[in-house]
Every structure is written in structure tokens, then in C-alpha cells.
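<purpose> Linking amino acid order to shape
<body> The protein record starts here
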Amino acid sequence: MLKRSFAILPNESNNMNPSLKTEILNNRIQEIQLENSGIVIRSDNALFNISEGQSISEIHPFFEGIIPLLETVSDTLKIPCVNIDLVSDLKIVDVEFFRKDGELILFLFDLTEHYEASQPLVQEKNLVSIAKYKLAFEKQLLQAKEEFKNNFLSNLNHEIRNPLNNLLGFMELLKETRLDYDQNETMKVMQRTGAHIKVLMDDMLDISKIERGVLDIKNVSFNLSHLVNNLQNHFQLKYHDNPVELVVNFQNKVPRKLIGDPTRLNQILSNLLENAFRNTETGQISLSVSVGKKTGETIKFEFTISDCGRGIPSDKLEKIFDSYFQFQIEKLKPLGQGLGLKIVKDLTESLKGNIQVSSEPEGGTSFQCIIPFEIRTTSQAKKTVPKGSGILMSKRILIVENETTNQMLLMKTFLNNEKGYVIEVAMNAEHALELLENNVYSMVMFKMSLPEIGGEELISRISNHKLDTIANLPILIASGSTLLLEREAIIAAGASVFLAKPYTKKELFNCIEKLIR
């Protein structure tokens, strides 16, 4: 029987004595001549003791499944890394069946040292590979979650803004009717609350703006007394059955006429007061306003909201501004405001201010916001608009709207307006195109969710109309789909102006005035 040539392993010395090298090779390779049935004809027993006439399945159960394949071996059959354990002798071998001149030879190559040495490297490689695929999976999962969140927010955005627009619109119309003093004050609170809901919707549906610190900060004139009084009226109405009293204190000589962002200030104070009411069962909540350092026309205002509620443990104070952080005392409901306090901190910093909190368990909590505002020193003349002299045909507006509630709101909004705007309502896109071809309009207004065809399709059919008088018509899109990508898609489709719902009558008329001057 002839031994097959076998390459020395990398860890073997190439300078080794040839006779010693041959001896090592012979001790590492066992050659067995077999019948096709797996019966041993001869064996050199270099690795395992096998008797003639013995079946190779008796060497190890592994060979039991190989025997049916032996007759099919025409050249070689190689099987690497086979663990063979005989009593206490474990060897890791490569198995090779070799047929030559009709004889079937089984070679067992002892590579135990090689496999044991390489096993840690293989395992490390596997761990790296697993980590790589895990990272890819987590990235894919994150992308799927982000896509789901965006779709959810987009749908929620549209579904809430449309009814909110109707609610605020009809409240605006109701305010123009004859209301007594109490009704008028209640209506003011309702309108302020609706405007606050609108701002909260803007922040909730585009929370990434808060995280990136790119909120839209305005710089307009406002009256601090009016803002604080409206907040006080709102919480007195909301918690009129609550034994907790809200007290407002203005320090002497606190300027009232300021320039800044009243909407964001209102949101900050509203969240802090809401948090105070949630965590106070009896006693008093105070809102104090004072002034600090003055630099030129800018003064740092100090807003302090204090309660006598359960307080916050000292080890929780650092986490109170974390997103969705809440804690619980005994069996009482969780304390904290979810995103509320997180928004307060981010908004305060967006206004170039800072916020601090101090508290004692069962001793109440105090939040102090320090925010700079510019003092308004000169009165700004109000713009006056002369009343319209009648119905102007050049200001006819076509509105595409299929919902009766929205139609009613639009009819009442444009009724007896001083701008001279006259509207006609089309029930659907086809009706709108028919009216456009048979009448002269100054502009067309519609939403994106229309029956039969979508808003983008109608924009395209108007913009690409064969008649220039129709193709050049300004298009105003009023929609509850206010995410940035959706706005950009609407303008890219050919719309002239995008107006986000909910909107006020003044905002609507300002948009129209810019389009059909």
C-alpha cells in the first residue's frame, strides 16, 4: 500500500530531518483499504486500531451515513473537520475516500492541533460577522420604525387638523356675533386654548425640530399682561372644581409691552402650570413675574411657578427634564409631564433662556425660567383697510370642497367680507374644471384629499391647461398635511401657496391678498 503525498502543515518546521518528517506524517495519516460495503480489508492503524473484516461504522457512527455513498465514489470524496472520539482519545480528522485502479482507500488525516489552534480565530471571526449582521439588522429595524412613525404622524396630522380647523373657524365666526361679557370672555379662552392646541400639534408632529433646536422662533410685539391673564383665566376655568388656587404676582414696574415670541412663552408657562396642577392636591399655586438684569433694550424676565404639592426627591431632580421621565410615590399616580417638561427646557433654551428647579419631598416644587425679551418703546401704527366698495368680479374665487361642514364654514367666512371676495364652490375636480372653462376667476383654492382624483392631479390639470387664463391661475392649497416633505411636494407640483390647517380668517385673507392683488 502506498501513502498519498501530504503537505506539511504551516506550523511544521521545513528544516526537519526527512526521516523524522516522514515518521510524523505516517503517525498523522491512517490508510484503510475498504470494500464498497465499508468492510475493512487492510489498515495500518496509525491513528485507530481497526481489525480486518470490521465495518468502518464501528470506528464512529459518523461513517454509518457514509457507507451508502461508497459505491458512487469514482475519484475522491472529501469531508473536512470530523470529530472522532474513541474512549478518551479525541481526534479531529479530515476524511478522504480515494479510488484508484478499482481499489477504495480511506485516508484519515489527523489535524487536531491545526483545528484547535484555529478555533479561537474562527470563533472571533464568527463573532465579528454576527456583530456586523446584528448592526445591519438594527439599522434596518430603525429605518422601519422611522418609516412607520412618519406615516403615523402624517395620517394623524391630517386627521386632527381638519376638524380642528372647523372648530377654530366656527369659534371665530361665533365671536363676531352678539355675545354678552361672560360669553365673550369664555370665547377668548376657547380661542387661546385652540391656538395652543395648534402649536402643540406643530411640535408633536415635527418633534425633530425640538431635538435639533430649529424651532421657528418669532419676534413680534405682544402684551405680557394679556398673555398671563389669559393663562390665569384658562386654568381657572379648567380647574374650577379643584380646591387649588392659582395666584399671579407681578413685581412693581415690570414692563408689559414686549417684543419676542408670545406663543412659545405661553407654551412654556402653560406646561409648567399644568404640571403644578397635576401634582398639587390642595393649597396654592403661584406664578410670579419679575425682572432682572437689563442690557440696552433687553431685560431678563424671571417667571417662577411654585406649588405646595408632593415635591420631587433630590435624586430625581437631574432626570426631571428627560423625555417621558416619570416617577411614582407609593400608590399615587406618576409624577411628571412626559414630554411636557422636556419641551419646556428645550423651548426655554431656544429663547436664549435657562430654567432651574428646586424641590423638597412633601414641601412643593418651584420652577424658575429666566428669558430675555426686548422692551417695545415705540407704538406701531396699525394698518387700516378701507371697506370694499362692492362685489368685484376680478376677485371671484373658486373653492373645491366636497364636505358640507367645510362648505358652511367657508360660506360664512366669506360672507359680507370687506375685501370684495366672492366665492363659488365646486363639489369635485371635474365640476371645478367645468366651472373654470365657463367662468372667469382670480384664483382657485382646494385641499389635497379630493374625491375621484387627488390634489396633485388637479394641480397638474390646471397648470397644464390649454387655456392660458386657466393655466396661469394662482392655486392656494389649504391642507392638514403639514410635514415638510409634504409641503415641498405640494409646491413642487405647481401650487402657488400652501396654507396649513388650522388657519384663521386673517391668515386666509392675507394669503389671498398676496395672490390676487
